[in-house]
Amino acid sequence: MAKKKAPEAPISNERIQAELKTLVDLGKKKGFLTHDDILEQFPEASVILKQDARVVVRRRTFPMGLPYVVYYAHLRAEPIAVVYLTHLFHERQRRPEIDLGAWPW
Predict the structure, then answer these.
(1) Residue among 56, 45, 50, 43 nearest 97 (CA)
(2) How distant, in Å, are the alpha carbons of 4, 18, 44, 62 from that of 22?
(3) 41 by DSSP, 3-state: which?
(4) Residues 34/42, Cβ–Cβ less than 8 Å
(5) Are the C-beta atoms of 53 and 76 separated by less than 8 Å?
(6) Per-residue model confidence (pLDDT) at position 9
(7) Which of 46, 76, 80, 104 has the greatest number of C-beta atoms within 10 Å?
(8) What is the pLDDT along the chain (105 residues), one digit of tens a residue?
(9) What is the pLDDT of residue 20?
(10) CA–CA separation, 8 and 60 (whole Å)
């Protein structure tokens, strides 16, 4: 009869975070994009909420099931040089109407 293995100790959150950071760092060294890089590298990739002749406001949900939504804005100039974080909401939170006339907020 085969011996049963003793139950393994649960992996600590610190160890998981350290291993994830190691994987992200390795991916960056190899030239892969992470979720953190997408906004920086491709700010135009998110959904447009509002826009006018001067500014574009976009919405992006957080990756990996995190229950947050970020609103950010940038000037319409090409290429996009600066991105402004304007709002951070829980996915179930009521969100105010964006008034582009009040830019910058």
Answers:
(1) 50
(2) 33, 6, 28, 21
(3) helix
(4) no
(5) yes
(6) 74
(7) 46
(8) 667 776 777 777 787 778 777 877 777 787 776 666 777 777 888 889 999 988 999 998 887 777 888 888 988 888 888 888 888 899 899 988 888 877 665
(9) 72
(10) 38
Determine contact, residues 47/61, Cβ cutoff 8 Å.
Answer: no
The confidence score (pLDDT) of residue 35 equals 61
Residue that has been written with the tokens 């890089």 in this structure: 37
Please count the residues of the chain: 105
| Predicted pLDDT at 56 | 92
Q: How far is CA 9 from CA 4, 6, 12, in A?
A: 15, 9, 9
Token pair 């090409």 in the structure block, residue: 78
Per-domain boundaries in the chain: 13-100
Contact, 92 vs 67, CB < 8 A? yes
Q: Cα–Cα distance between 7 and 50 in angstroms, integer?
A: 54
User: Which of 24, 42, 88, 33 shows the shortest CA–CA distance to 62?
Assistant: 88
CA dihedral for 38, 44, 48, 52, sign (positive or negative)? positive
CA count, 13 A, side-chain hemisphere, 96: 7
